[in-house]
Design goal:
By secondary structure, the protein is mainly alpha-helical. The protein has 2 domains: 2-72 and 262-391, no CATH class; 93-251, M75 peptidase, HXXE motif (A middle domain of Talin 1), CATH 1.20.1420.20. The protein is 63% helix and 2% strand. The chain is built from 16 helices and 4 strands. The strands form 2 sheets. A two-stranded parallel sheet has the order 1-2. Strands 3-4 form a two-stranded antiparallel sheet. The chain starts with a strand and ends with a strand.
Length: 395
């Protein structure tokens, strides 16, 4: 998820003091009801049917294009030359000078996503809940589909896959884990345990996460994800710097690229093609079954994406593909405007990617890009497909 310093226009401020502690269930229901009411009429109906289908198809097309390009950049060619995979493995043309530099990039990616899950994906809405519970709900990623916990768990799975050098939960002989185990078995066991503890803590949050921001389980998940971040940053990276500065990591890198990154991006490409096909079929013949198929395809496409977030470096970052596909929160008022104007071109941008630095205005071009990205991607499509954790129905 690319989290932007952005709050949708028209969000409702609401004081937590309005509710009594003995009315927790009613409080949660009211918060969710109020959050649901922020954007356009949340029921699919004849007044919006044409725009709704067009919007779904436009977003699905952009997702398909982005995932096709991402896989091609890694597997085929990047910026007119060799694939990014070859550049990464040769430690040339990608800002790396050694195999150790590449391994540190892998670990940095794992640190970044563990930190994001702890501080932003879970931590931000939990912290906001105490003072502004309605906006706290709106900060929760994947709250329309009730898929938040699975998304966050898959984020930690991306750490596991990178560390294990596999996608099937086994530790490959050519993996960071195996190398560390041979040098410091206690540290390896600590990393493995921290990964499991983080995943278990996330899935222990009562479902759906958006209704349980004040739970003790959410607080525990924040702590466990932070523990994972710290063991990776303060212990694993330090151990490698102190003890494996001259280690030849090439076999580990080859396993990582060919058996983790490329298959994950290939799955993302294939699943987004399936999602596009489901959306096109729905647009041609809207039905409740069509909505259900779109919902299933969306969930399937989310898995490889969220399981790739430990390697958000290279093309996915340089070309703006992360915020293209996964910006959050949405510009809900902008979505209303798109529905009314049907200006689908506003979802696209061209030129070199620029990101608005946090806390700064940035350039006009960067602002234009951000505006487009907040109207597209997985979460816009999620909003169009889901309501209350289920596929929408036709009214």
């Amino acid at each position: 998820m690319k989290k932007r310093v952005f709050i949708a226009a028209g969000l409702i401020a609401f004081s937590a003091a309005t509710f009594t502690s003995c009315d927790k269930d009613k409080e949660e229901d009211k918060l969710v009801e109020m959050a649901d009411s922020v954007a356009i009429d949340t029921e699919y109906n004849s007044a919006y049917a044409k725009q709704w289908g067009n919007y779904m198809r436009t977003v699905a097309t952009l997702l398909k294009t982005d995932s096709d390009n991402l896989y091609a950049y890694w597997n085929d060619s990047y910026e007119g030359g060799e694939s990014y995979a070859k550049r990464f493995l040769s430690h040339e043309g990608a800002g790396f000078k050694s195999s150790k530099d590449c391994v540190e990039q892998i670990i940095d990616g794992c640190i970044d996503i563990a930190n994001e899950v702890s501080d932003t994906k879970i931590g931000s809405p939990v912290e906001l809940f105490a003072t502004d519970p309605v906006n706290a709900v709106l900060q929760v990623e994947s709250w329309f589909s009730w898929h938040s916990r699975v998304d966050f768990t898959n984020n930690i799975t991306s750490v596991k896959n990178a560390y294990y050098g596999s996608l099937d939960g086994t530790i490959n002989a050519n993996s960071i884990s195996k190398v560390i185990n041979g040098k410091n078995a206690e540290l390896d066991a600590k990393v493995i345990a921290a990964i499991k503890d983080a995943q278990d803590a996330i899935m222990s949050i009562p479902q759906p996460f958006r209704n349980n921001l004040g739970s003790k389980e959410a607080q525990t998940a924040i702590v466990k994800c932070a523990d994972l971040r710290d063991v990776l940053d303060k212990e694993l990276k330090t151990f490698i710097d102190d003890n494996l500065a001259d280690y030849d990591w090439d076999a580990v890198l080859s396993q990582y690229v060919n058996n983790v990154v490329l298959p994950t991006y290939k799955s993302l490409k294939d699943r987004n093609t399936d999602l596009y096909d489901a959306v096109v079929a729905f647009e041609k013949n809207p039905s409740n079954d069509g909505f259900s198929k779109c919902a299933d395809a969306w969930v399937a496409a989310r898995t490889p994406w969220e399981s790739s977030e430990a390697f958000l470096f290279g093309p996915v970052a340089d070309k703006g593909l992360d915020p293209n596909m996964d910006s959050w929160p949405l510009d809900l008022s902008g979505i209303v405007t798109i529905f009314n104007t049907q200006s689908w071109g506003e979802l696209e941008w061209s030129g070199d990617y620029e990101e608005i630095p946090e806390g700064e205005d940035g350039t006009k071009h960067a602002q234009d890009i951000a505006s487009a990205q907040n109207l597209r991607g997985f979460h816009t499509l999620e909003y169009l497909i889901f309501k209350d954790g289920k596929a929408r129905t036709i009214h």
